[in-house]
Amino acid sequence: MRRHPSRWLPGLLLVMAAATALAAPPDATYTVKPGDLLQVSVWKEPELQGPVLVQPDGKFSFPLAGQFDANGKTVAQLQQEISSRLAHFITNPVVTVSITQVNGNKVYVLGQVQKPGAFVVNPSVDVMQAISMAGGTTPFAALGNIKILRHTAGGNQIALSFNYNDVAHGQDLAQNVTLQAGDVVVVP
Predict the structure, then answer these.
(1) 143 part of a folded domain
(2) Does residue 1 sit within a domain?
(3) For a Cys staple, 125 with which of 3, 16, 72, 121, CB 3.0–4.6 Å?
(4) What DSSP string runs through 153-183?
(5) Which of 177, 181, 115 has its CA nearest to residue 146?
(6) Rounded to the nearest 5°, which phi and psi values hold at 169?
């Protein structure tokens, strides 16, 4: 029995849209973090292709181009830097950099939650989402005293207050901040 194309075409379009969404590149504003795995490829140069792990200090090395500091840089910026350095050895290098694993963008949720631990966030989550990723709170949680511990650019640490009940009731939503890599949500 042969099916008419008009019957399966909507389903095919839905599958194609889902596949496109899954293959979409990360947010262009995402900056590479220590622990991220990059795929670097130079067109027509098989020796200059492969995975690159961003080290804990935010740096990585690539053949012929040397060492790079990825801290605070986007994929596009790294691609440009690598191309620029390789231009000394290769005429008009075509470099592609992509993130294959976003392991460096982690937040930590601990205390009175069902599943405390480290969570990779792609690309970002807020406090309520992080608590949900940790399985929600336990019955013993002090929902009005949750703290977000964050390291500032100057190396200091700050504590942001979060009242779960207020946010759950649609009040004071500004405290439901987007978490940054390395933030710790403490649910007492």
Answers:
(1) yes
(2) no
(3) 121
(4) TTS-EEEEEE-HHHHHTT--GGGSPBP-TT-
(5) 177
(6) -100, 15
Tokens of 186: 């403490």
Q: Are residues 139 and 85 in the same domain?
A: no
Sequence-distant (6+) residues with CB within 8 A of 39 are 50, 51, 52, 96, 97, 98, 99, 100
Diameter over CA atoms, the chain? 70
Render pLDDT for 92-138 as a digit per residue (tens, 0 to 9): 999 999 999 888 889 999 999 999 999 988 768 999 999 999 999 99
Do you know the residue count of the chain?
188
User: Is 26 part of any domain?
Assistant: no
Quick one: 81 and 118 in the same domain? no
* Domain that residue 85 falls in: 37-101
Model confidence at 71, pLDDT cuts 50, 70, 90, reads: confident
Regarding whether 154 and 120 lie in a shared domain, the answer is: yes
pLDDT in tens, 8-29: 444 433 334 333 333 334 456 7
Instruction: Write down the pLDDT at residue 102.
Output: 84
**Strand order across the beta sheet in which 184-187 lies:** 117-120, 106-111, 184-187, 146-151, 157-162
pTM for the full predicted model: 0.67
* Pair (83, 116) in one structural domain: no
